[in-house]
Write a structure and sequence with these properties.
Helix content: 40-55%
CATH superfamily of the largest domain: P-loop containing nucleotide triphosphate hydrolases
Number of helices: 14
CATH architecture of the largest domain: 3-Layer(aba) Sandwich
Strand order of the largest sheet: 2-3-4-1-5
Pfam families: DNA_pol3_delta2 (PF13177)
GO molecular function, one term: 3'-5' exonuclease activity
Structural class: alpha/beta
Keywords: DNA-directed DNA polymerase, Nucleotidyltransferase, Transferase
Strand content: 5-15%
Catalytic activity: DNA(n) + a 2'-deoxyribonucleoside 5'-triphosphate = DNA(n+1) + diphosphate
Order of helices and strands: HEHHEHEHEHEHHHHHHHH
Largest sheet: 5 strands, parallel
GO biological process, one term: DNA-templated DNA replication
CATH topology of the largest domain: Rossmann fold
CATH class of the largest domain: Alpha Beta
Number of strands: 5
Bound molecules: zinc ion
Shape: elongated
């Protein structure tokens, strides 16, 4: 399943404006087929459109108000007039059973909103039976209903499906838009450039890439820390490996681990124990953990100074002893 946010991005402003005008003139077709590259947040735009079609009082720019009864149940993912079809977990296709549930849904009377909205993500994943079944709803649209499809591969949809929808091609962001967005997500310019190059200019894909990379580094650092505490690696060996890494980040990780460990030890045996916290129990005691936490904080205040990297990492690891 796709995690959806009802948001649009800077590179969506033109299309959002077009949709808004079509809605104002009551010309919005009942079936819309959006297509565009994955990793650019396009599915979020479609989701934002769904929410705003359901909203009882959209704002002047045609965005959902976020306050009304409809918006509240939408945010709780419990809107009775909204149906989302997506690939089920571990499945490669959208099945005819899923599409049949959609027919039934469209026949119900509306309960909260002026419209009923169906959204299908990965529309290209409908198998032939599913696509044929969807044709029926596209040919005989239910009153006040909208069917919003999104696909990254429009040519893989049956031509009969494509021809019954208004097709809207979503543009990928340009380099400046992608960079600005990534920088607003707290990525440094060099990292942002590098990741955009790797992902072919797709900013949301770049962010996923970045968090994966960071998580890997975090796990590696934790393993090194444990190896030092267990006497399997020397302070200098580990410090040499991490001397060029962002020192604020190294300190933040350690502060988080110690803080979580303290919180858990205060609460007694918690049920949220992670492997990391269990591992730390062999090396931390409640009174020394507080001391360690404070010293890590002090070091963090110093970490902005142009100190020797290796020395700083050595110092931070030495605090654990
Ligand atoms: Zn609303």
């Amino acid at each position: 399943m796709t995690d959806l946010l009802a948001v649009t991005y800077a590179w969506h402003q033109t299309i959002w404006q077009q949709l808004k005008v079509a809605r104002q003139q009551q010309h919005l077709p009942h079936a819309l087929l959006f297509s565009g590259q994955l990793g650019c947040g396009h599915e979020h735009l479609v989701y934002a459109l769904a929410q705003s079609l359901l909203c009882l009082q959209p704002d002047a720019a045609a965005y959902a108000c976020g306050q009304c009864r409809s918006c509240k149940v939408f945010a709780a993912q419990a809107h009775p007039d909204f149906m989302l079809l997506d690939l089920a977990e571990d499945k490669q296709v959208i099945t005819v059973e899923q599409v049949r549930s959609l027919h039934h849904f469209l026949e119900l009377s509306r309960s909260y909103s002026p419209h009923r909205v169906v959204m299908i993500i990965h529309a290209d994943a409908m198998n032939t039976n599913a696509a044929n079944s969807l044709l029926k709803s596209l040919e005989e649209p239910a009153d006040n209903s909208y069917i919003l499809l999104f696909t990254a591969h429009p040519t893989q949809l049956m031509p009969t499906i494509r021809s019954r929808c208004q097709q809207l091609r979503l543009a990928s962001p340009n380099q400046a838009q992608a960079l600005t967005w990534l920088q607003a997500q707290a990525l440094g310019q060099t990292t942002a450039h590098k990741l955009l190059a790797i992902t072919g200019g797709r900013p949301l894909a770049a962010l996923v890439e970045e968090s994966g990379e960071r998580l890997q580094q975090q796990t590696l650092f934790f393993n090194h820390l444990i190896a030092v505490l267990a006497g399997n690696l020397s302070l200098t060996e580990v410090a040499t490996q991490w001397e060029k890494y962002d020192r604020q980040e190294l300190l933040n990780w350690q502060l988080t681990w110690v803080q979580q460990w303290i919180r858990q030890s205060l609460a007694g045996v918690g049920d949220t124990t992670t492997l990391e916290l269990t591992e730390l129990t062999r090396y931390l005691k409640p009174d020394t953990a507080w001391q360690l936490y404070e010293r890590l904080l002090e070091l963090k205040a110093l970490a902005t100074h142009p100190l020797n990297g290796r020395l700083l990492v050595e110092n931070m690891l030495a605090l654990w002893f």
